[in-house]
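[stage:ingest] chain + small molecule (3,4-dihydroxyphenylalanine)
[stage:ingest] validated
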Amino acid sequence: MKDQFEQLKDDVIAAATKIADRDALERLRVEFLGRKGKLAELMKGMATLAGEERKLIGAVANEVKSAVEAAFVEAEKKAERGERYERGETERVDVTEPAIGSRPRGHLHPVTQVREDLEDLFTSMGFIVADGPELESDYFNFTALNIPPTHPARDMQDTFYVEGAHGSNGEVVMRTHTSSQQIRAMRAYGTPLRTVTPGRCFRNEATDVRHEHTFHQLDGMVVDKGISFAHMKGVLGIVAKHLYGPETKIRLRPKFYPFVEPGVNGEVTCYLCKGEGCRLCKKSGWLEVFGAGMIHPNVLREGGVDPGVYSGFAFGFGLTRLVMLKYGIDDIRHLEGGDLRFLNQF
Ligand code: DAH
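[stage:predict] done
[stage:export] C-alpha cells:
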C-alpha cells in the first residue's frame, strides 16, 4: 500500500511539472486531490488495515499529500510566469511614458480666479454675464458711449486702430474697456437689464510697472424704471464688502466719464491698514478700484432705451488691478507675462 501511495505521488508530480496551463492544472488537481480523487480512493483502503499499520500508512499518506500540494503550488507559479511571458511577447510597455499622477497640474490664472468669483457674486444678484468682442467697432467702443470722433476724451484711452479693417459699424479697434458691451447689451436684451461683462482690454501704453497694453476689466450696468444713485451705491458697497471684508466702506468722488452723468471715482477702505494710511494706499486710507455713474441719456438713447422712462447706473472694475492689490503684485507686466515662476504662486 505504501508503494501505491509513492507511485501516486511520482505520477502526480511528473504530470504537474509538465503542465503549463492553469486550467489543465486545476483539472489534474481535482483528479488526484479532489474529494473523489485518486488519493481519496486510496485512503479509503486504509480502513481495512490494522492499528499499527494504519498509523504508518496514514503518515505516508499525509506526506504524499503535502508533497503533491507543494508540487501544485510550484506548477501554478510556473504557469503564471508563462502567461506573463506570453503577454510580454505581445504587449509593450512604454517606459518613457510619464507615470500616472506625475504630470504637473495647471490651475486658473489669478485674474480668472477673481473674475469667476465676481461672476458668481453678480449672478447671485440677478445679473447675466454678457460677453463681447475684443476687436470692437470704433462706434461701440467710443462714439455710442458719448465719445464722438473729435472729442478730447478719446485721448484718455489711446488704443490700437486696426488699419484697413472695417466692420458693419465702420472702423475697428481693440476695445479699450469692457464698457463697449453696454450698447450691445441694451440692444440685445432691452429693459429691465442687469449685466456684467468681464474681459480683456487693450490700450496703446508705454509699458511700465503700472501700465500694460493688455489688461482685464469687469464692466456692469443696471437699467430699469426708477434706478437711482442710491441703488448704485448699494450694489457697489456689496461688491466692496465681498472683495475686502464686511468692514469695508466705499467712497464716491466726482469724476468725468463721458458715458455717465454724474460720474464717480470709486474707492474702498484700504484692506491692509483698514483706513489708517499705509504704503499700499499711499497714506490716504483709500484704494481706487472702480469708475461708475448714472448712465448718460445719450448712451441710453443709443441703446434704444427711452431716458424719459428708464434710468440706470454703470460701473467698471479693473480686474487686473484687483488682483494686484489682493496679492501685493508690484509689476503689472507679470500678469500677462506667462512666466510659470510667477504664476505658480497663485
Ligand atoms: N470704462 C472706464 C475705464 O475704462 C471705467 C468705467 C467708468 C466704466 C464708469 C463704467 C463707468 O461703466 O460707468 O476707465
